[in-house]
Amino acid sequence: MENQYYTLMEKQDFFEIIENKYGELAIFIDARDGAPQEPLLEFDGKKTALLKRDERRAIILDNVDSETKGVLAEAEFVMIVEMKADMVERVYGVPVENVEEIEFKGRRTRADELFKAKSKDEVLKSFGAVKIWTGGVAK
Predict the structure, then answer these.
(1) Which residues pair with 84 in a beta bridge?
(2) Mean predicted confidence (pLDDT) in 60-65
(3) Under a CB-based contact definition with an 8 Å cutoff, are residues 66 and 79 in contact?
(4) Long-range interactions of 14-19: CB distance < 8 A, separation 24+
(5) What is the pTM of this model?
(6) What is the mean pLDDT of the chain?
(7) In sequence order, what DSSP letters do the residues of 49-76 get, joined into one string?
(8) Nearest Cα to 106, choosing from 60, 38, 75, 62?
(9) Are 112 and 11 in contact (CB under 8 A)?
């Protein structure tokens, strides 16, 4: 079992947003490992969206096309299509939440990654702590 004590934000360099004849949107991105868990797409109404894929991984979609902004801002739901080369790895629906600003808190490790440290409570929960012993001098 893999424990992650941080949130990894990855920048998706190339993505496509496609609209069908019913006005529904699909976003094509690179496939990631594992199935998404309660995914959510945040959109700032300008040029950046953040796909919160699960509790430990988020995908940054930067430089959203100006013609797409209005359509994406009005969408309540989008389809995410994860591709591995030319093959579809998985397809899933995601609710869209409009936000004032996308927050990128964390430490940039490469041009395309940002690590966000979890709180102590989140680390303890991920670690599966059953007992905590305190030592040292009382505050």
Answers:
(1) 87
(2) 89
(3) no
(4) 15/61, 17/64, 17/65, 17/68, 17/72, 19/71
(5) 0.72
(6) 80
(7) EEEE-SSSEEEEEES--HHHHHHHHH-S
(8) 60
(9) yes
**% of the chain exceeding 70 in pLDDT:** 70
Tokens found for residue 110: 């490469």
Least confident of 71-80, 89-98, 120-129: 120-129
7-43 pLDDT, tens per residue?
677 888 889 998 988 888 999 999 998 899 999 999 9
Alpha-carbon distance 132 to 86, whole Å?
Answer: 49
Tokens representing 88 are: 């579809």
Question: 87-98 and 16-19: which strand pairing?
Answer: unpaired
Token pair 């609209």: residue: 19
